[in-house]
Specification:
By secondary structure, this protein is an alpha/beta fold. It has a single domain, classed as Roll (CBS-domain). About 40% of the residues lie in helices and about 25% in strands. The chain has 5 helices and 7 strands, in the order E-H-E-E-H-H-E-E-H-E-E-H. The strands form 2 sheets. The chain has a 4-stranded mixed sheet with strand order 1-2-3-4. Strands 5-6-7 form a 3-stranded mixed sheet. Helix 4 packs across helix 5.
């Protein structure tokens, strides 16, 4: 089974500072067509903020995105997966905890962010390749 980091190693990692506003985070997500951002403070991963967090914790309850800090609405201390873990392990973590995005780390260093869609596409393509090998 493929390593999870292989899925994202060639992608730029976008992140947001915990003291940034939700509006800044939303604009960054929109600009780069991504659904979540790792949240950093002094170089350390301290959280993750997703479109769903913004919708449920800001917009739906009438908070102001331009003045609300990311740190106020992020999911703090997110689970992460190490660069040497497999795609299958990533899928297990996401299913077990209900995540749609999972930070990839190497020790304390953020190396990437993988989405459920990334993992499912890779998993399905691997299973299709295995089925073709068996059929031939």
């Amino acid at each position: 089974m493929a390593l999870i980091y292989e899925l994202v190693k060639d992608r730029r990692v976008y992140s947001v500072d915990a003291d940034s506003t939700v509006l800044e985070a939303a604009r960054l997500m929109m600009e780069h067509n991504i659904g979540a951002l790792p949240v950093m403070r002094n170089g350390d991963l301290v959280g993750i903020v997703s479109e769903r967090d913004i919708m449920n914790r800001v917009v739906a309850i009438g908070r102001m995105p331009g003045t609300t800090k990311v740190a106020e609405v992020m999911t703090a201390n997110p689970k992460s997966i190490n660069v040497d873990e497999t795609v299958e392990n990533g899928l297990f973590l996401m299913r077990e905890f209900g995540f749609r995005h999972l930070p990839i780390t190497d020790g304390r260093q953020l190396k990437g962010l993988v989405s459920l869609r990334d993992l499912l596409l890779r998993y399905v393509s691997q299973k299709e390749a295995e089925a073709r090998r068996v059929a031939s």
